[in-house]
Inverse folding.
């Protein structure tokens, strides 16, 4: 089966910019006999005719072309011929592989303790903290913290601090 994404032109749905992008509206499955080969224009034309218009691009369920399988809300970058994940936070930017990266490197310490006190850090990005101080942004709680209000730790570049 072949998969096609219907695209619609929208002002940046994240609200981070006023740019216009081609955003995935829906993804449909089309019989292989309607598509001569991957990324062939005949498949897109078939979708336009069958669904009564629209802009269509084939997407690869196995990520064999156009970077990754398109999902609703993904952006199609025509100049790169790729589907890109939605930008998760305003401060994040695309790297050379077109993956979103935080402005601060992901923490290197992801667990601690030993034996019955072993835990992992549940790590998340806090855009508000980053906007207040662009040396911060990563925060975590310990997986074994059962308090009603768990302690939140901030990453200082080499260790977690409370």
């Amino acid at each position: 089966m072949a998969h096609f994404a219907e695209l619609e032109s929208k002002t940046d749905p994240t609200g981070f910019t006023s740019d216009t992008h081609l955003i995935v509206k829906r993804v449909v499955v089309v019989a292989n006999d309607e598509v001569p080969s991957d990324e062939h224009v005949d498949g897109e034309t078939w979708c336009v005719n069958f669904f009564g218009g629209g802009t269509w691009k084939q997407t690869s369920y196995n990520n064999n072309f156009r970077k990754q399988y398109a999902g609703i809300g993904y952006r199609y970058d025509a100049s790169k011929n790729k589907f890109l994940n939605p930008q998760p936070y305003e401060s994040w930017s695309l790297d050379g592989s077109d993956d979103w990266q935080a402005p601060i490197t992901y923490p290197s310490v992801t667990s601690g303790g030993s034996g019955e006190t072993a835990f992992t850090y549940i790590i998340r990005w806090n855009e508000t903290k980053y906007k207040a101080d662009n040396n911060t942004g990563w925060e975590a709680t310990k997986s074994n913290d059962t308090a009603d209000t768990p302690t939140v730790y901030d990453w200082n570049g080499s260790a977690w601090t409370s």
The longest helix spans residues 41-51. The mean pLDDT is 95. The CA atoms of residues 90 and 120 lie 27 Å apart.
